[in-house]
Design brief:
6-stranded parallel sheet; binds ligand LXAUTJHC; alpha/beta; 30% helix; 252 residues; 3-stranded antiparallel sheet
Length: 252
């Protein structure tokens, strides 16, 4: 399992630039090696920080048609709902780049609008299993779980990542690839989320954290490895990269 590699950037703008460069380099590497790139997105502020990817030089140099896009977690609501991570990513990022619609794997539209979190999680897991059969996603030889190329993650002020929250049992799930929560402490309450073994089976994980609000949790993780905070469990098969801005690093 990869150790955390932390970099602190003077500004959010520089962090954004570095995130775009990191993503573009991995995109080129994996497309050269195997003809496709699997990328897992989070919701929240991260989508704003991906803005540099939709600007030159990346907008023109990335082979977007080879991307396959997933969500590490999703809110169980209609795709049009302002809470939807899908809507956020479509409006802020995905609609601006030529990724084929068939390569964008959103939560099931019908069951999400109906608010059935358990069924949405089961359907998303089934979708991943079908993509394993189609050889879009390999199974990690080391862990036995699906192996994504890159996950772009964010952390809430309470130390949550994806929809794995402190003092909630989802962090311990090991059988399922995708689980659900119906009492998320951060609204909306119903969500689906990749489980920790799946998150940690990714080859590259990039955790991006900005602003003062998560600074105390950042310090708890970096200084004390406080495992009551779900983000402290983040690892990766090759690289576990943490990009912070000055404000997020202010308690270190
Ligand atoms: O609810 C969520 O929160 C986390 C962190 O979001 P942020 O707004 O504090 O940046 C996010 O990574 C996750 O995908 C989202 O569903």
């Amino acid at each position: 399992m990869a150790q955390r590699k932390m970099t602190v950037f003077p500004t959010k703008n520089e962090l954004s630039q570095a995130m775009a460069e990191y993503t573009a380099n991995l995109s080129a590497k994996f497309i050269k090696e195997k003809g496709l790139f699997t990328v897992v997105l989070s919701g929240g502020d991260l989508i704003d920080w991906l803005c540099k990817l939709v600007q030159p030089p990346y907008i023109d140099s990335i082979e977007w048609s080879k991307w396959h896009v997933f969500w590490v977690d999703e809110r169980v609501c209609a795709w049009e709902d302002p809470d939807s991570n899908y809507k956020l990513a479509m409006e802020g990022f995905l609609s601006k780049v030529p990724i084929p619609d068939k390569n964008i794997y959103a939560i099931d539209k019908h069951w999400a609008a109906n608010g059935n979190a358990e069924h949405c999680a089961a359907l998303y897991e089934e979708c991943l299993k079908n993509l394993v059969k189609e050889k879009i996603i390999p199974i990690s030889k080391k862990t036995g779980y699906p192996e994504f190329d890159l996950q772009l993650l964010g952390m809430g002020p309470d130390g949550h990542m994806a929809s794995l929250f402190p003092n909630h049992p989802q962090i311990n799930e090991k059988q399922k690839w995708v689980t659900h929560i119906t009492d998320s402490p951060k609204p909306p309450p119903k969500r689906i989320t990749f489980t920790l073994p799946v998150i940690n089976s990714a080859l590259y994980n990039l955790m991006a954290i900005c602003d003062k609000a998560p600074a105390k949790s950042v310090a708890e993780i970096m200084k004390h490895n406080n495992l009551s905070l779900p983000s402290a469990h983040l690892s990766a098969q090759v690289e576990n990269v943490w990009y912070l801005d000055q404000a997020a690093a202010s308690e270190l």
